[in-house]
Amino acid sequence: MGLIEAVAAYLDAEGRLESRVLPREAGFLYATESMRLTTRLMQLASWLLLQRAVNEGEISRDNARSEKEKVKFSATPSQRGGPGYDELPLTLRTFIDKGDRLFERVMQLDALERGNLPDVTPGVANGVADQLSRLKAAFARAE
């Protein structure tokens, strides 16, 4: 939520001023990327709020999964770049990078929540994957 607030404050003040002095192509890209960023952050916030509701016992996991299916992530990091991207203000590009990292982390959490554990190569020690497998097994027995 802090990232959302920081992005909103930037776009409403400093970002607005910075966008006015950009060349035409970069100005168009600024508008596009700022819209993508705010959309993606709101989608991530929706996902995270659903997860918090489950953790606090407000809704069931099944209900949350059903609601999460309605959150379609658009403007993914793979759509980044293009002509004029390097001319965007550094602050906006930094917020975009933070949003991309948050997106990747939420996608990893979503995969884990759905039971999609990362593949572990036999013979390679991976303490985190081992612990996740044990947690999954323990929770599967508890349900």
- Beta-strand level of the residues, as a percent range? under 5%
| Contiguous runs where pLDDT drops below 50 for at least 5 residues | none
Give a quick account of the main beta sheet: strands, pairing sense, barrel closure: none
Give the overall form: elongated
Number of helices: 6
- Determine Rg (CA atoms, Å): 19 Å
Proportion in helices: 55-70%
Let me know the average pLDDT: 84
Question: How far apart, in Å, are the first and last alpha carbons?
Answer: 31 Å
Instruction: Give the tally of β-strands.
Output: 0
Q: Structural class per helix/strand content?
A: mainly alpha
Question: Helix and strand succession?
Answer: HHHHHH
Can you walk me through this structure?
The protein is mainly α. 70% of the residues lie in helices and 0% in strands. It has six helices and no strands. Helix 3 runs parallel beside helix 5 (90-113). The two termini are 31 Å apart. This is DUF1465 family protein. It holds the Pfam family DUF1465. InterPro entries: AraC-like_sf (IPR038301), DUF1465 (IPR010848). Residues 59-72 have a biased composition (Basic and acidic residues). Residues 59-86 are annotated as: Disordered.
